[in-house]
Specification:
Main location: cytoplasm
Structural class: alpha+beta
Number of strands: 8
Order of helices and strands: EHEEHHHEEEHHHEEHH
Helix content: 25-40%
Distance between the termini: 54 Å
Enzyme class: transferase
Domain C3H1-type: 263-293
Oligomer: single chain
Zinc finger (C3H1-type): 263-293
EC number: 2.1.1.211
Shape: elongated
Radius of gyration: 30 Å
């Protein structure tokens, strides 16, 4: 709709209509073929000569459609715009009624096949939107999509949550110690207790939880992002014991080995700074810096 001279290319993948999931209407075709026919129909209703092509890509869904030319003259744009508006409204009417009644509708396979049920004609107020707005109330995504994986949360807020959860695990039970027998020394290091995500959430204040709920994955995502401190397994949160981590493989490709070496000691060790027993690893074995003097 952007201009009469525009062209388009589309590679259909997920089965969606204008207003939600696409509902099948023909059992004689595969779901993929039926959906391809629907996408081609949309192009035809919009007044394009629709061409179909199969891409040479390693995917089961590789049929694409190209619209390079129009089926009508530029002077007929208003009529086609009206046709598109009616088509979109008919799909909405069908989607709502199908959901209400639990049955599908009979649709023609051809371009002009609008809904045959009562109410296929758009309401008066929506007919007037031809040429201006096709779908009143439709909210497109913002041009810049907000990152909501906890990565954009303020650093001070994340550090506070990490410290609170770590203290919660460390103080959950009386000193639960792990023995470090490296070099024959019997040093104890408090690994704390494991708690479920729900138990951890119950100990956080409402304001913190509200802030986390606005992010995808919430508390779990934040804890997984801080994998230096925590390990989340089967819905339970543990403090990570770096002595149990597998040493880096010597068979790694040279590029990956070089990247790992470059990232060594570039951040402070959380355990060295915050854990009551310090880090469970000696400085030379820890991938993080034990003090600012070791930072690279």
């Amino acid at each position: 709709r952007s201009s009469y001279s525009c062209c388009y290319f589309v590679l259909p993948c997920c089965f969606f209509d204008f207003h939600g999931k696409y509902s099948r209407r023909q059992s004689k075709k595969t779901q993929y073929r039926e959906y391809l026919d629907f996408v081609a129909q949309v192009g035809s209703v919009c007044g394009f000569h629709v061409e179909e092509d199969c891409l040479r890509i390693p995917s089961t869904k590789r049929v694409s459609f190209i619209g390079k030319s129009r089926t009508y003259a530029a002077a007929e744009r208003a009529r086609i715009d009206q046709q598109i508006t009616q088509f979109i409204n008919s799909r909405r009417t069908c989607a709502v009624a199908t959901c209400d009644r639990g049955v599908g509708f009979n649709h023609e396979d051809h371009c002009g096949g609008l809904c045959k049920e009562a109410g296929s004609e758009p309401p008066e107020d929506e007919t007037e939107t031809a040429g201006t707005v096709w779908m009143p109330g439709f909210q497109p995504r913002e041009k810049v999509e907000r990152i909501r994986n906890c990565a954009s949360l303020p650093r001070d807020f994340v550090d506070e949550v990490v410290l609170n959860v770590a203290n919660l695990l460390l103080n959950a039970v009386p000193q639960k110690s792990c023995c470090d027998k490296q070099g024959g020394n019997m040093n104890t290091w408090n690994q704390g207790e494991s708690l479920s995500l729900r138990e951890v959430a119950e100990h956080l204040n409402k304001e913190t939880l509200k802030k986390l709920k606005s992010e995808y994955g919430g508390l779990q995502t934040l804890l997984k992002n801080n994998h230096q401190v925590f390990e989340v397994l089967n819905g339970r949160v543990h403090i990570r014991d770096w002595r149990k981590e597998k040493p880096p493989s010597k068979t790694k490709p040279e590029v990956k080995r070089r990247l790992s070496a470059e990232a060594f000691k570039t951040r402070l060790c959380w355990f060295f700074v915050h854990h009551p027993d310090g880090c469970s690893l000696p400085s030379e074995a820890c991938p993080y810096a034990h003090g600012t003097e070791e930072l690279r």
